[in-house]
Write a structure and sequence with these properties.
This protein is 33% helix and 22% strand. It is built from 18 helices and 26 strands. The strands form 6 sheets. Strands 2-1-6-5-9-8-7-11 form an 8-stranded mixed beta sheet. Strand 12, helix 5 and strand 13 form a beta-alpha-beta unit. Helix 6 runs parallel beside helix 7. The protein binds iron/sulfur cluster. Iron/sulfur cluster binds next to loops.
Length: 510
């Protein structure tokens, strides 16, 4: 496996000029190249075999003509999962971040070559360690194991220091990591899971004094609510929030509740809040007879709610609410959307009276990025593959999937898939990358690249800094009255008997 050609260009969308050697700059790309910069596609790769095939089809093309930085030989890039690390020459370390890309407009390359293979066969990466590369340099692929994961010396040093602190504190310290965290964070955690699994773990742990929560703020807040009085919960980055959680706050939900109960009467309506929400909304649910749910148990939570009241206000994720409503057989006309900026949420009193499920107009930007076009494209590219998506995706995407479920479900789905199978996943890219590395005998492919920037805020440096400031840095605190009421709604969720439920006819697992 080696470098056959190196090429750079000053302008995007134009063929690149070949050079014999180049300087690759850490977190930037090839020096002087138009595609270098602070993003995830700093360096591009194409196989020389792909270029040769294009030539055989009659295109007059050579190295650099598809705007690839590096042409390689001896590597089947289609078998390399996103997240794989590569050593180029002696020093350069690159992480594969994307396979293929969307072309929105035809550029100079298309007009020169008559076609472009980059959208399908191009590979893109981020530079973790810089250095000089030369034509003919060897390329090594790391396999993801502890010894062969291609980590930089700085990352190894930080991991060593984190492990030393863990060893010194033993059971006094527990690190919880969400599935969407980077691999290097998950590798240092004591427990990985989705928000339901992590909240169960936080509620069950009695011995740890310090709980470090590597996830977003609402999750750490839930851990703080469920923790014991002697426990301290910390989050490595207090700014790691959630866009969806920000789409509903206490004041607008209280206003909506007032408007709705004026129409429905006080005893017809029950609130169900998704875990992805601030503590005071969970407290609101606790005070109004409601319950918290996660994507693992939304069906059970809605059944629980409907056994008590006639109607449910579900917030803040309309898609999880609608997909769950669909799987429970609620008719589309019995589900209405509540727009918090409009009178009666944009509904008539009559529509509210007829509705069973009132869905807050919130959504996850990471999961609504998956589109029907992506499903069609992937089905054509990987015939026979299974597509599994998260229920925060739109109902159109869910309807076309083979399976739908929480992140915990998706992990089990891949683990249980037969060796040799291809699974296309519609959820956050860090989980997809890790699954691809952890299950090398299955092909795990992202439905589309979609990264949660909030989850990504937590890195090794911040984790180490938090551990070096135990009990002090970014301590997550919830006022007593909010904690008391929110705990009522969270405890109701934890007491739900787990059942195997169905979502749109597809098996979903708690
Ligand atoms: S993936 Fe979506 S719902 Fe989850 S933390 Fe990120 S923005 Fe929030």
């Amino acid at each position: 496996m080696k470098i056959e050609s190196i090429a750079v260009s000053k302008k995007k969308g134009t063929p690149k000029t070949r050079v014999e050697e180049a300087l690759i700059v850490r977190e930037h790309g090839l020096e002087g190249d138009a595609h270098a910069g602070k993003w995830h596609r700093q360096v591009s790769f194409l196989t020389s075999e792909s270029i040769e095939r294009a030539r055989e089809c009659g295109l007059e093309v050579g190295f650099g003509d598809f705007a690839e930085n590096i042409a390689t030989s001896g590597i089947d890039w289609m078998k390399i999962p996103v997240g794989t690390r590569l050593k180029l020459g002696k020093d350069v370390l690159v992480e594969v971040t994307q396979i293929g890309k969307e072309c929105h407009a035809r550029c100079a390359i298309y007009y020169k070559t008559g076609d472009c293979i980059m959208p399908k066969e191009g590979i893109f990466g981020r530079v973790l360690e810089g250095g000089r590369i030369h034509v003919g340099d060897e390329i090594r692929i790391f396999d993801g194991s502890e010894q062969g994961d291609g980590r930089s010396p700085e990352e190894k040093e930080i991991s060593k220091r984190v492990k030393a602190i863990k060893e010194r504190l033993g059971k006094e310290l527990i690190i919880l990591t969400h599935h969407y965290q980077r691999k290097e964070i998950v590798d240092l955690g004591d427990f990985r899971g989705d928000s339901f699994g992590l909240s169960q773990r936080a509620a069950a742990d009695r011995s740890a004094k310090y709980i470090i929560f590597c996830g977003v703020h609402f999750m750490a807040e839930s851990a703080a609510i469920l923790s014991q009085d002697h426990q301290i919960v910390q989050i490595p980055d207090a700014e790691a929030g959630c866009w969806m959680a920000d789409m509903a706050d206490k004041f607008v939900v209280e206003r909506a509740w007032e408007g709705l109960t004026l129409v429905t009467g006080p005893d017809a309506l029950l609130p169900v809040v998704y875990m992805n929400s601030d503590a005071d909304l969970k407290a609101f649910c606790g005070r109004h007879g409601g319950i918290v749910c996660t994507s693992s148990n939304a069906e059970d939570a809605l059944r629980w709610g409907f056994s008590r009241r006639e109607k449910i206000l579900f917030f803040p994720d309309q898609h999880l609410g609608r997909n769950t409503g669909n799987s429970l057989g609620i008719a589309p006309e019995e589900m209405i959307l509540w727009d918090p900026h409009r009178e009666l949420g944009g509904n008539s009193a009559d529509q509210i009276r007829k509705a069973k499920l009132i869905l807050w107009d919130g959504y996850c930007l990471v999961h609504t990025r998956f589109k029907v076009e992506h499903m069609e494209e992937m089905r054509a590219r990987y015939p026979g593959a299974k597509i599994v998506v998260h229920p925060e995706c739109t109902q159109e995407v869910v309807a076309l999937a083979d399976a739908v479920g929480s992140t915990g479900y998706i992990v089990k789905y891949v683990e249980n898939a037969p060796p040799g199978s291809t699974i296309i996943i519609g959820t956050e890219i860090n989980l997809v990358r890790r699954l691809a590395l952890e299950c090398p005998d299955r092909r795990v492919v992202p439905l589309h690249d979609s990264l949660c920037p909030n989850m990504y805020k937590i890195d090794l440096n911040k984790l180490l800094w938090t551990l070096e400031n135990l009990g002090k840095a970014n301590v997550v605190e919830v006022p007593d009255d909010i904690r008391r009421d929110a705990k009522i709604a969270l405890d109701r969720m934890l007491e739900l008997a787990p059942t195997q439920s169905k979502a749109n006819g597809k098996r979903q697992q708690a």
